[in-house]
């Protein structure tokens, strides 16, 4: 289907081209003409409220995510999906467990997440053959789930062909959004000088510039995660340098607490650029060198998840919400050590004060959960229990049904 209505006042052609709205991130099915008409009318309604400068300013940053009126419920599956990393213990597990057998590929993950009532999956795409991608597509379509990929970036020109093959495999399987990271580890553990972090910024920009023509060619969006590396303004600056509608954010709701950011401010800053999400709840605890940080079942932590979800929906009404509930021991955030500050020469002390105040005001009942003392089967059981609890919370409290 191709619809080509024109907005003469602004002199801009608007279309629903093969199901993809060129004004925003919505993608429908070419068979559902009425869905396109309703969606397009909402885009035009917004456009009528904006002047030309506002439209061009929003379009230029590459977010391509406008504050649309709420879309009808039939336009997208609202159920929460599951990120493969939620199965921290079970994915490619070597444990011989009859009750919790390992997942070794996307097909098994899709089957299991469907059984839990999830809406889709975000899974690693690496070297998928065309035949396997076809199997994933058929499985995904049969189960009625969305699919997002997690993919590595090219570091140099000779890496681009491999990157393109992975993009093609993901697209053939039905993924329209991919997630990636730019760093090899957490900022405060991996980089030990301002110069080292500046080198990361330079390399990240190079990688995204290598990736962008491939994404544009195949019409696949890529979200860069705030992966305990970028503070939100850093990530926005990177996106502005790349300046592509195909590159935005995979917004993690809790990671940036490790960089002393206010999680709600992070969502407010990054939501306009967001293509996909890692939804989680967080809990904290003091320790001598700073604080401990843990994912916990949703509703038991300190994040205002309903407000965060609403902010994301405001900018991307058709976007997905994917659970990343990693069941593991708490992470140490050594913000009271000199080494932590080696890449933060200008970070205000008020951010540290606010973070420590939050830690002291929100003690987790009974202390943060630990898993290192559990047997392998006990870890797998707790992991599954936590994921099921989060999916149930998303249905009962976040309206993801």
Structure notes:
- The structure is a single chain.
- By secondary structure, this protein is an alpha/beta fold.
- The chain has two domains: 2-60, no CATH class; 74-397, Divalent-metal-dependent TIM barrel enzymes (TIM Barrel, Alpha-Beta Barrel).
- It is 39% helix and 15% strand.
- It has an eight-stranded parallel sheet. The protein has a three-stranded antiparallel sheet with strand order 1-4-5, with no helix packed on it.
- α3 (106-115) runs parallel beside α4.
Topology:
Elements: E1 2-3, E2 6-7, E3 12-13, E4 16-17, E5 20-21, H1 33-48, H2 52-60, E6 81-83, H3 106-115, E7 120-124, H4 130-143, E8 146-150, H5 160-173, E9 177-180, H6 187-190, H7 194-218, E10 221-225, H8 232-242, E11 247-252, H9 263-270, E12 274-278, E13 281-287, E14 290-296, H10 305-315, E15 322-323, E16 331-333, H11 349-361, H12 376-397
Parallel strand pairs: 6-7, 6-15, 7-8, 8-9, 9-10, 10-11, 11-12
Antiparallel strand pairs: 1-4, 2-3, 4-5, 13-14, 14-16
Characteristics:
three-stranded antiparallel β-sheet; alpha/beta; 401 residues; 2 domains; 16 strands; eight-stranded parallel β-sheet; TIM Barrel
